Amino acid sequence: MTKKISKTAFTCQVCGFQTPGWMGKCPDCGQWDTLVEERFRTAKTSQGKIRKIITVAKTKPVPIDSVELGNEDRVMTGINEFDRVLGGGLVSGTLVLIGGDPGIGKSTLMLQSLYGLAGQGYKVLYVSGEESIRQIRLRSNRLKTISSDMLVVSEVDMEMILSMVEEEKPDVLVIDSIQTMFNPDLSSAPGSVSQVRESAMRLMLMAKRTNIPTFLVGHVTKEGAIAGPRLLEHMVDTVLYFEGDRSHVFRILRAVKNRFGSTNEIGVFEMKDKGLEEVSNPSAVFLSERPSNAPGSVVTASMEGTRPILVELQALASSTNFGTPRRTILGLDHNRVALLAAVMEKKLGMHLMGHDIFMNVAGGVKVDEPAIDMGIISAIASSFLDRHIPDNHVVLGEVGLTGEVRAISHVDTRVAEVKKMGFKKCFVPKSNIKRMKEIEGIGVVGIKTVAEAIEELF
Asked: CA within 20 to 30 Å of 72's CA: 16, 247, 255, 273, which one?
């Protein structure tokens, strides 16, 4: 005879660590006040032993070269920027996790993607745990995403959702959001580590068994990471982050994990009253409001996956009234800017320790590759000297601690994009020129050191 035994454990809501007693600080991840009491049940036999349910796999290992591959054509969502980030479309049975700040446009992107799939004849199912079906219809009216092949339901019970998937057999499934899903077998509240982990596991098994591509929308914490255990990101095939400031109209969709594509690709969208609109030429958009002949402004080229994007770096160097100068950086690596400012102090003789430095990437985009080092130095020097860089100049190059300008990758692609946008002169590392193809219509100048670059620019 078996009896149900109820037990409690304190579970960390950040990392999933469990302990029988409460503690103020989680010993595993170091976070404070994250342990929450959760109740779970185990079955106990009359002999007093805990019964463990073990599922015996009936499959056998096979040689990898004997595995047959069928038609692995990807499913296109109809949104080119979204398909680019996914690696060229949806793979059968893939599990995609999308995270982002509240109001950034995650649900909007999902509705528009499902509408594009429904327009191709696919049967899609949108499961919302946060909105009623009437609210979903109102939002779909505004976005103009109404289709008879698009099924919507408001449900949080995982048992009901899985049985619904078995019955309806959709081609694509969206769960919005994974933190609202609830398993009746667990007594913990929706959004807890146990519930999120169990829900994601069941959806993963369902996706692999039925080959239904599944999207999971995830909430984010104050630090910007997806809420729930880190295990959630390990279980899924693709992790996408929707970035952007709500005060800006541009949104960046970036892949941080992708088993079926590159993690360097980004998708650029513009938020409008009718939803998200693709930005096919981000360079033109980011440079559209660039001031003319303004000190502290310079254009550089950043590679995002296979696509070069021209961005405007802005710098302001002003005399400080405090003993310690401020370094306020938006869209760039704070430590990298501080390092380059130190190189300028030592190699160019610019007394930046007496100046506050403010830097910004226009348009709200974030850039973090070393190839824009010369752009950062040029912008700071332009503001410090109060002399503008000609509007038709672009500066590229990585800078070392001794002031040398090092070679960068994809220089031909970057220079081709610079020429396409109408710029007349491009400064690149001298070591890159030897391996570059000749590009007509644009002057390419090789620079070897930071001092040489500043001499050429000013």
From this structure: 255
| R_g over Cα of the chain | 27
CA distance 35 to 24: 7
Cis peptide before 177 (omega within 30 of 0): yes
Q: Which helix (H) or strand (E) holds 340?
A: helix 334-348
Distance (Å, whole) CA 404 – CA 321: 32
**pLDDT for residue 2:** 47
- What's the CA gap between 281 and 151, in Å, rounded? 33
Distances (CA, A) of 163 to 121, 151, 159, 168: 23, 15, 6, 9
Across all residues in the chain, what is the average pLDDT?
87
Q: How far apart are CA 314 and CA 61, in angstroms?
A: 57
* Full-model pTM: 0.76
Residue 245 in tokens: 């400031």
Inter-CA distances, 167 with 163, 170, 173, 396, Å: 6, 9, 13, 56
**Number of H helices and number of E strands within the chain?**
12, 21
pLDDT tens by residue, 400-438: 999 999 999 999 999 999 999 999 999 999 999 988 888
Q: Which amino acid is at 69?
A: L
Quick one: tokens of 368?
């973090």
Closest CA to 311 of 261, 250, 257, 255: 250
Pairing of strands 150-154, 172-176: unpaired
CA neighbours closer than 13 Å in the CB half-sphere of residue 304: 24
On whether the CB atoms of residues 357 and 316 are closer than 8 A, the answer is yes
Beta bridge partners of 410: none
pLDDT above 80: residue 53: no
How many CB atoms lie under 10 A from the CB of residue 127? 23
Residues 164-170, mean pLDDT to the nearest whole number: 94
Q: Write the DSSP string, 398-433.
A: EE-TTSBEEP-SSHHHHHHHHHHTT--EEEEEHHHH
Contact 347, 424 (CB under 8 A): no
CA proximity to 424, closest of 450, 452, 458, 390: 390
* HEC secondary structure over 219-281: CECCCCCECCCCHHHHHCCEEEEEECCCCCCEEEEEEEEECCCCCCCEEEEEEECCEEEECCC
397 within 8 A of 428, measured Cβ to Cβ: yes
The closest of 346, 332, 315, 269 to 84, measured between CA atoms, is 269
